[in-house]
TrEMBL record, chain A:
Pathway: Protein modification; protein ubiquitination. It comes from Aegilops tauschii subsp. strangulata (Goatgrass). Coiled coil: none annotated. GO terms for biological process: ubiquitin-dependent protein catabolic process. The lineage of its organism: Eukaryota, Viridiplantae, Streptophyta, Embryophyta, Tracheophyta. Residues 70-117 form the SKP1 component dimerisation domain. InterPro entries: SKP1, SKP1-like_dim_sf, SKP1/BTB/POZ_sf, Skp1_comp_dimer. This is SKP1 component dimerisation domain-containing protein. Residues 1-38 are annotated as: Disordered.
TrEMBL record, chain B:
This is Tubby C-terminal domain-containing protein. It comes from Aegilops tauschii subsp. strangulata (Goatgrass). PANTHER family: TUBBY-LIKE F-BOX PROTEIN 9, TUBBY-RELATED. Residues 116-399 form the Tubby C-terminal domain. It holds the Pfam family Tub. Belongs to the TUB family.
Length: 119, 404
């Protein structure tokens, strides 16, 4: 018998997210007391921080919301927004594995809207 | 333990972990795993699926955080199509996006096709341009992307001229690629009389509750209380335009008179409101939509003032140009948006019928003028919509009233 192993979706990754976000909170809050780190350094730190798989990103959003860390919530939500940009509805559904639950009439309306928007 | 409940347990477990963040749950997970050895390998295969489906469970308030960022950052076309794309992902995304996006009157932005039927902004004009194709007798409306008079633009509407023995129709569509008869992207038309002196603008959809359908044999009133209206293929007259010669005959600029039957005169007063369509009816014009798209909205159409039919209608007239003695021509201040003299050029202002000596309001509601061969600017604002503006401008192409 093999215990099921979840790859990147293991609970440990979620556990990792929280310490990760705590350490961010520490590093960002410490800048208010010490001399401010250069803006470019913070920016690249942020960019590196969100280079994670989508599952971890999801966990980070929930963690940031639960722990009420606004900066992290902004960063993670913006990252997701950036993933959405320049994609069609079908591509967005694929990226986030979202089910198309429109009725045929609604689907026709959506198609018409997107046909017009992408013209 | 059934397979389904195993998956549900694991999902709940992930949810617990996400919510509480720090609790170690290895022992709990081991207990869950130990309970279902037979499905272990199947669960392994489903790991990826579970990873993906988590996004469908993103709480609405967090999804909203993401979508608000899209709406804010993609303010201008062509990137604004990301907003429309998000509204086409699934019902949850659509509901939030439609709430987040404000009407053009408030945001000065066009987002969904329905924006073209909604009044423009109060404080600024939306600067558009029209390209004419003489060979195919078609006209294309774009909204400008930059400060330039005309650029690549974002396509808005297309019109096709259809000449008949006793009248001419300009059929207006959302899709320049499908302007055939019966196209589902047809949204209205401009019809001119034989002489090209009187025009009627018809909307394919009811402009407000209580709108009267114009049909050859009968007039039907759309029920005021209908939540799921059966919308017949319609011709709802929304404005009547007439052209007359000036008192100076053809030596003076022609006079335009537009009665906006779907807009009350009070719309241009302080605190006035113009009716706003909120959704296109679902399905073909000939079919009967069953349920309004958003159950949270009780009526698809923002209800106009209840006495819309009885109230005085808004009348627009063209602003009187002044005679410029030195240049020996009639002049209007187009603020740089019109660069070629043409009899087609005009500025429409709200006419104050009740005011002393037929006063005009100062605010130019619609301005149209030539900037090049087959190229014209069209600037409009509240209380008229892009669709109505386009139709009124098309009449300027068609009218036979000329000026020396």
């Amino acid at each position: 018998m093999t215990a099921p192993t979840m790859t990147s979706r293991s609970p440990t990754s979620t556990q990792r997210s929280s310490p990760r976000s705590l350490s961010t909170a520490r590093s960002t809050s410490s800048t208010s007391t010490a001399a401010a780190a250069p803006a470019e350094d913070l920016k690249s730190f942020d960019a590196e921080f969100v280079k994670v798989d989508r599952a971890t990103l999801f966990d980070l959003i929930l963690a940031a919301n639960y722990l009420n860390i606004k900066g992290l919530l902004d960063l993670t939500c913006q990252t997701v927004a950036d993933m959405i940009k320049d994609n069609t509805p079908e591509e967005i559904r694929k990226i986030f594995n979202i089910k198309n639950d429109f009725t045929p009439e609604e689907e026709a309306e959506v198609r018409k809207e997107n046909q017009w928007a992408f013209e | 333990m059934s397979f389904r409940s195993l998956i549900q347990d694991m999902k709940d477990e992930f949810g617990n972990i996400s919510r509480h963040g720090l609790r170690s749950s290895r022992s709990h997970r081991a207990a869950v795993a130990a309970g279902a050895p037979r499905v272990a390998s199947v669960v392994l295969g489903l790991a990826d699926a579970l990873e993906g489906t988590c996004w469908a469970q993103l709480p609405p308030e967090l999804l909203r955080e993401v979508l608000v960022r899209i709406e804010d950052s993609q303010g201008c076309w062509p990137s604004r199509r990301d907003v429309v794309a998000c509204a086409g992902v699934c019902r949850a995304w659509r509901g939030i996006m439609k709430e987040v996006v404000r009407v053009p009157e408030a945001s000065a932005k066009l987002t969904f096709p329905i924006s073209l039927k909604q009044p423009g902004p109060k404080d600024v004009t939306l600067n558009c341009f029209i390209r004419r194709n003489r060979t195919t007798q078609t006209y294309y409306l774009y909204i400008g992307l930059t400060e330039a008079l005309a650029d690549d633009g974002k396509f808005l509407l297309a019109a096709r001229k259809c000449r008949k023995p006793t009248y001419t129709d300009y059929l207006i569509y959302l899709d320049m690629g499908d302007m055939s008869k019966g196209s589902s992207t047809y949204i209205g038309k401009l019809r001119s009389n034989f002489l090209g002196t009187k025009f009627t603008v018809y909307d394919a959809h009811p402009p407000y509750d209580g709108a009267i359908v114009s049909k050859s044999r009968s007039a039907r009133v759309i029920g005021l209380n209908q939540v799921s209206p059966r919308v017949p293929a319609g011709n709802y007259p929304v404005s009547h335009i007439s052209y007359e010669l000036n008192v100076l005959g053809s030596r003076g600029p022609r006079r335009m008179n537009c009665v906006m039957s779907s807009i009350p005169a009070s719309a241009v007063e302080e605190g006035g409101k113009a009716p706003t369509q909120t959704e296109f009816p679902l399905g073909n014009l000939d079919s009967f939509p069953s349920i309004p798209f958003f159950r949270s909205k009780s009526a698809r159409i923002d209800s106009a003032p209840a006495q819309a039919q009885d109230e005085e209608k808004l009348v627009l007239k063209n602003k009187s140009p002044r005679w410029h003695e030195q240049l020996q021509c009639w002049c209007l201040n187009f603020r740089g948006r019109v660069t070629v003299a043409s009899v087609k050029n005009f500025q429409l202002v709200a006419s104050d019928e009740n005011g002393a000596a037929g006063q005009e309001h100062d605010m130019v509601i619609l301005q149209f003028g030539k900037i090049g061969k087959d190229l014209f600017t069209m600037d409009y604002r509240y209380p008229i919509s892009a669709f109505q503006s386009f139709a009124i401008c098309l009449s300027s192409f068609d009218t036979k009233i000329a000026c020396e």
